[in-house]
Structure formats: C-alpha cells, structure tokens
C-alpha cells in the first residue's frame, strides 16, 4: 500500500509529486498523459520565471523535474473508480487496482463534446479538438470552428493563416472572446461568423464533407472538410461518485485541498478553485501534497 | 534488423514533439515528415492511416496513430 496515489500528471499532479517525493512519501502517479492541458497549450507568457515558453516545453520541464525522483509512474492509464473502504483508498484503472492511505485527484479537464450525430465517427477524420495540433492539415480547405469563446477564436485565428475559408458557428448571439481577438476576426475577409446557430450533425463519407446547422428555425448544410470543436472544457471527475462536486462537475475542495472524504484531496482544474491557470494548478498541487503530509503525520 | 521509422508531424503539435523526443531519447533514427508544408505528404499520411490526426508513425510498415508509447516500444522492440 502506498502513502499517496496522485491521479493525473499535469501541472497540479506533477507539482504534488515533487513535493511528496521530497517528503519521502511512498508514491504512485497514475495518468493518461504527461503535462495535461499545459502540454497542448500554445505560447505561455505568464508562468513566473519564464517570460516566454511554449506549452510542450514547459510540460517537458515539469516532467524532467518529476523524473529527478524515483517515482512509480503509470502512464496511458485511465481511472475507472476511486473509493474509500475503511482506512484504504482503492483506485481501479483500466489496467489494474491500487491501494493507498491518501489520494490527490489532479485529473484536470478535457474538451467538451458537442454530442451530435457524426461526432464520434469523424473524430480525426476531419473533426478535431486540437487546433494547435491539426490545423496545418487543412491548408486551402473550408473549415468550421464550433464555439464563440477564447479557445474558438484562438483556433479561428490559427486557421485564418492556413484555410481557404473559416466559418465560426456560435450558439450565442455574439462572440464572447477577448476584444483583441474579435477585432482580428472581424477584420478578416475569409471568416464568416454565424451567431445564434446550432450544429445538429457532422456528415461525410470517409472524411468530413460538411455539417448541418440550424439557424432562424431552418436547417441547412454547410460544406466544410474540417471541424474544430472548441466549446469549453469539462472536469475529469466521473470516477468519483462519493465525492462532492458542484454543478459543473468540479470537485469541491476547501482551502487545504480537502474533499468531503478524509484522506482524499484534489488540486488543479478538476476542482472548484476559481481561475484555471497553470501557475494556480501548480500552486494547488503543492498545497495538496503538504496537506497530505500533515494528514499522514496525524494519522 | 533496424526498422525504418517515419514520423508524420506538424511543427506545432505537442504530441509530435513528445513522440520525436521519445525516439531521440531512445537513440532511434527517424525521418521527420512535416505535413504542414507539403500537401502530397499530408495525403500520403491520410491514406496510410485512414485519418487526419498527427502524429502518425510508420515503423517498418506498422502504422501507429498518436503518441502511443507502449505500441511504439513494442514495434521497436524497446
């Protein structure tokens, strides 16, 4: 049995691991990937100490820092269930089962899905959730960005440089991203914004050939070869039914990163802590590890 | 014995960077194919993998989509 299992290896999980390793806890980190959302971020200019660093570079530095310590790490593993029985915390994954005295949930957030027909079928076949990764494949093609916030506008601004035409399909009555980004969108002649518009289906043959949209009560087809879904994020917290969450699904924590279950802590974007930032997630990860240390020394 | 390794990637894709770093860390020689500058190689990648996401690795003919470390290790016999 471990002292601590950390779920997730983004900024929060990795920082927690570094702190816990320095306290010489016996420690297991279980994660789907390393770096979390930070690893797929573009340019980062607000992580103190780095005036400019890219997401992958910062994630690589985090990983390097964690690997300085001899930490048991299970990558490419998905959590299926976390529950407390007696004094033990049991963590079930798609590959095994583990036990610990404490846990830190730092599983972060993932892209929200549209839940329309064709979305699963055409994933990576023209439909993507990562403009930073896949935008260059749509050179000289017509594409649609679904969403109206900062991440949607960021995707659209990347696509303007590459695609033939970019449609922004926004369910709200106006775009909500930062003014500086909206200005750039408005200035571009190869962007069309459809407000008050819903996407009802993605269709195609082997690859995407278009989307069905509904506006002013009428449904129509729009021919595009690329669909970029940027409608926000949802917390990876479904595996913890016993844990209190808010209506967004975020795990509720107090200022010591404690959840409602003694011995189970949480940190980073998966929690209800306001403001989702890399530096905040890292700070919360360190707090959670120190709280675990106190908890274990009391027990 | 050594398998020919091709990595289809874009310069901005984080998992491409990680996949290439992983190969370098394991001293695996590979050819990096940037699909963002050449439509012909982009089509080649799409027809090989049947999808449009990067990275795609071609390890001696075995096609691996994404940075799937376990499959890459197995394919390379690491």
Low-confidence stretches of chain B: none
Alpha-beta content class of chain A: alpha/beta
- The overall pLDDT average of chain B reads 91
Q: Could you tell me the number of beta strands of chain B?
A: 4
User: Alpha-carbon distance between the termini of chain A?
Assistant: 15 Å
Rg estimate of chain A, integer Å:
21 Å
How helix-rich are the residues of chain A, as a percent range? 10-25%
Provide structural commentary.
- The complex is a heterodimer of chains A (299) and B (78).
- Chain A is 25% helix and 32% strand.
- Chain A has 7 helices and 19 strands.
- In chain A, strands 1, 2, 5, 6, 7, 8 and 19 form a 7-stranded mixed sheet that branches. In chain A, strands 10-17-11-12-13 form a 5-stranded parallel sheet, with helices on one face.
- In chain A, helix 1 runs parallel beside helix 7 (278-298) and helix 5 (150-160) runs parallel beside helix 6.
- The relative contact order of chain A is 0.18.
- Chain B has 78 residues and is of the alpha+beta class.
- Chain B is built from 3 helices and 4 strands, in the order E-H-E-H-E-E-H.
- Chain B has a 4-stranded mixed sheet, sandwiched between helices.
- In chain B, a hairpin with a 2-residue loop joins strand 3 (56-59) and strand 4.
- The relative contact order of chain B is 0.25.
């Amino acid at each position: 049995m471990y002292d601590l299992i950390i779920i997730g290896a983004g900024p929060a999980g990795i920082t927690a691991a570094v702190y816990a390793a320095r306290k010489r806890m016996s420690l297991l980190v279980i994660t789907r990937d390393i770096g979390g959302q930070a690893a797929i971020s573009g340019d980062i200019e607000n992580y103190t100490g780095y005036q400019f660093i890219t997401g992958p570079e910062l994630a690589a530095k985090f990983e390097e820092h964690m690997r300085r310590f001899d930490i048991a790490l299970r990558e490419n593993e998905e959590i299926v269930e976390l529950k407390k029985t007696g004094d033990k915390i049991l963590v079930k994954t798609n590959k095994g089962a583990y036990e610990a005295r404490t846990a830190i949930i730092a599983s972060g957030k993932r892209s929200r899905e549209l839940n329309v027909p064709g979305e699963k079928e055409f994933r990576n076949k023209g439909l993507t959730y990562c403009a930073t990764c896949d935008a260059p494949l749509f050179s000289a093609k017509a594409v649609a960005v679904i969403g109206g916030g900062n991440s949607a506008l960021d995707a659209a601004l990347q696509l303007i440089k590459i695609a033939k035409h970019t449609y922004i399909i926004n369910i709200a009555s106006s775009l909500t991203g930062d003014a500086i980004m909206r200005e750039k969108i408005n200035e571009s002649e190869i962007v069309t914004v459809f407000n008050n518009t819903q996407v009802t289906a993605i269709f195609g043959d082997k690859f995407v050939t278009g989307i069905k949209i509904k506006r002013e009560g009428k449904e129509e087809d729009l021919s595009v070869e690329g669909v970029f879904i940027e409608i926000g994020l949802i917390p990876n917290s479904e595996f913890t039914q016993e844990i209190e969450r808010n209506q967004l699904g975020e795990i509720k924590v107090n200022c010591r990163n404690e959840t409602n279950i003694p011995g189970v802590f949480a940190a980073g974007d998966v929690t209800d802590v306001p403001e989702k930032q890399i530096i905040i997630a890292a700070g919360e990860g360190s707090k959670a590890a120190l709280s675990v240390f106190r908890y274990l020394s009391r027990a | 014995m050594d398998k020919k390794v091709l990595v289809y990637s874009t310069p901005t894709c984080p998992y491409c960077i990680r996949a290439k770093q992983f190969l370098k860390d394991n001293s695996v020689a590979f050819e990096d194919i940037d699909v963002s500058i050449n439509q012909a190689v982009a089509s080649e990648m799409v027809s090989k993998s049947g999808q449009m996401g990067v990275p795609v690795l071609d390890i001696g003919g075995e096609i691996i989509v994404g940075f799937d470390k376990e499959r890459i290790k197995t394919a390379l016999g690491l």
